[in-house]
Amino acid sequence: MDIRITYGSANAPTELGAFDKALYEAGIANYNLIKLSSILPENSNVIVEKINWNEKEFGYKLYCVLSSQTEKEVGKEAWAGIGWVKCLDGSNKGLFVEHHGGSEKEVSDLIDGSLTSMKTYRPEEYGEINKKLMGLKCEDQPVAALVCATYQTENWNV
Fold it and tell me: How far apart are CA 135 and CA 84, in angstroms?
């Protein structure tokens, strides 16, 4: 299964408007997002690439792991990130974590801390921590940053 990690950031007159515009930039604005917990199934291939599915399947369900952050205070930052590790046994299964915050360092440290902890009580051996972060500073309008791991889409008529 290919899991694509897409990302976006934007500003708009409202926080919700900025979030929607960031979804559009990430290529997933016209989906109904169904948030998943943070497990990579066996045979997962993680691909970091900005996608453009905005005109693909209007209103479909999109199963995803989503990290997002908004900020409306001028001078502050919004950061979102997803980190992942994969088992070293060749199964390509693994773990995702999603964090958000007010700085790149904060989000990066949270990802590292969560994945490091999660690896300690599982019997599998995991490889290095990978991550994708996105952020921006609020200048004059609310901003939003997001990173989304897209699993699969599904029509409502299924």
Answer: 18
pLDDT band at 69 (very low <50, low <70, confident <90, very high): very high
- β-strand pairing of 61-71 with 143-154: antiparallel
pTM above 0.85, yes or no: yes
Which residues, at least 6 apart from 1, have a Cβ–Cβ distance to it below 8 Å?
41, 43, 44, 45, 151, 152
Interval 120-130: pLDDT, tens: 999 999 999 99
Q: Mean pLDDT over all residues of the chain?
A: 97
Give the contacts of 113 (CB within 8 A, at least 6 positions apart): none
DSSP three-state, residue 35? strand
The DSSP-derived string for 79-126 is EEEEEEEEBTTSS--EEEEEEEESSHHHHHHHHHHHHHHHHHTSSS-B
d(CA 1, CA 152): 9
Per the structure block, which two tokens stand in for 89?
A: 């046994």
Classify domain 2-154 at the CATH topology level. Pyruvoyl-Dependent Histidine Decarboxylase; Chain B (3.50.20)
Nearest to 30 by CA among 39, 40, 20: 20
The domain ranges of the chain are 2-154
